[in-house]
Design brief:
single chain; alpha/beta; Rossmann fold; 3 domains; six-stranded mixed sheet; 48% helix; flat
């Protein structure tokens, strides 16, 4: 296909903004509308505007790149958020729409994205919007809250579907090395079959004939009654972990031999266990922000423990203790000494990128806690291994 110089100039004009117009020529039609939509969003950054730069121009670079810097722009126009969303959905491809909506919510905190009923009816649910709903739901009236619940429901359902598969896999059972008479593909013992039939290998044909296939049995883990207590820091920086903790608790709820608790904390402690079966409703009740008293939350968890040697307490926090750090260490040590497994999780989400007070993490590790970060699926595997061991 012959390159279109006009299209390339148009792309560069969209990337560089209005100051490039003298070199590239004016925009018309949809290109002008795209530029207005980008200027409405990225033109509101005053630092970049003074330098002639408009940040985050998504999806308009030659070759389909996503440049981090744009120049020019006329600043926010009289477009309403609803008008802007309509233009964005008409003018850009899906992946660019997602980037623009995410930047509007997370970078520029355009709250009417999640507080205006007309906008909420238009926008597509995704995880960035769920985070925004959780941060701004205190601004919403009952009508808007009902619409926001659609976003929460949709995203939680997606997360549940994914994690439920991982939880089922973790708790289904392990393969035994005992032979089995149940012949199906899941129980097929590939290595054992090769070893048992090596005598039937035909070098001239380079083929192994299987006369005696081997299968192994599966044993379901023997599970005694255990407790899983999730303590979740609901400070604003932990929003992703709060979301995944709610979903994880819902997936673990009702598993044979496992009693699950979910407790949120800031400066106070709120037991949310009664809402575990409805994680969307649970997330609508979480109040992000406030102080942090992790020691108080750990002490509350200790009071929930029935059998210390059959309990796992997972503290999900960045470990910046706003209460008494010494008390937190003492409470963790007391749990460990009585035989409870204590996990200190600096992140519980799909990325599992930890950001936490490493000095406190070291002190908790010295007290006997397992400190790190986990994906929800890995946490499920850890619990299954522990209670089935």
């Amino acid at each position: 296909m012959t390159p279109d110089p006009g299209a390339d100039l148009e792309r560069w004009r969209l990337i560089l903004g209005a100051p490039a117009g003298a070199a590239t020529g004016p925009l018309g039609g949809d290109a002008a509308a795209r530029d207005r939509a980008l200027a409405w969003l990225y033109g509101r950054d005053p630092g970049l505007a003074r330098r002639g730069v408009r940040a985050g121009g998504p999806g308009t670079a030659p070759g389909g790149g996503r440049p981090d810097d744009r120049t020019g722009g006329d600043g926010p126009s009289v477009l309403t958020t609803v008008d802007w969303l309509d233009d964005v959905h008409r003018l850009f491809p899906k992946e660019t729409i997602e980037r623009l909506e995410r930047d509007a919510v997370e970078r520029y905190e355009i709250h009417d994205i999640v507080t205006d009923p007309a906008v909420l009816e238009r926008i597509e649910p995704d995880r960035a919007l769920l985070r925004a709903v959780m941060r701004t739901k205190h601004l919403m009236n009952p009508e808007v809250l009902a619409l926001a619940r659609r976003i929460v429901d949709a995203v939680v359902r997606e997360l549940m579907d994914k994690l439920a598969t991982e939880v089922r896999r973790a708790f289904h059972g392990t393969r035994s090395r005992r032979p089995s008479r149940i012949r199906n593909s899941r129980n097929f013992d590939f290595r054992g079959t090769i070893r048992a039939n090596l005598a039937h290998y035909r070098p001239d044909e380079r083929r192994l004939y299987i006369e005696s296939p081997r299968f192994v049995s599966r044993t379901r883990r023997h599970v005694e009654q255990w407790q899983m207590i999730l303590l979740v820091d609901q400070s604003g920086s932990m929003v992703d972990s709060v979301i995944h903790s709610a979903v994880t608790a819902a997936c673990l709820w009702g598993l044979p031999g496992l009693k699950t608790h979910l407790v949120a904390f800031d400066a106070s402690v709120v037991d949310l266990t009664s809402d575990v079966t409805d994680p969307a409703e649970l997330l609508m009740k979480v109040q992000l922000g406030g102080g942090t008293d992790i020691g108080r939350a750990v002490a509350y968890a200790a009071g929930l423990v029935d059998n210390p040697r059959r309990a796992i307490v997972a503290v999900i926090s960045d470990f910046y203790e706003g209460g008494d750090p010494g008390r937190l260490v003492r409470e963790v040590r007391r749990l460990v000494e009585q035989g409870t497994c204590v996990l200190g999780l600096a992140a519980l989400d799909e990325a599992a990128n930890p950001a936490f007070d490493r000095e406190m993490g070291r002190r908790l590790a010295d007290a006997g806690a397992h400190v790190g970060a986990m994906t929800p699926g890995r946490l499920a595997e850890f619990v299954a291994e522990r209670i089935g061991g």
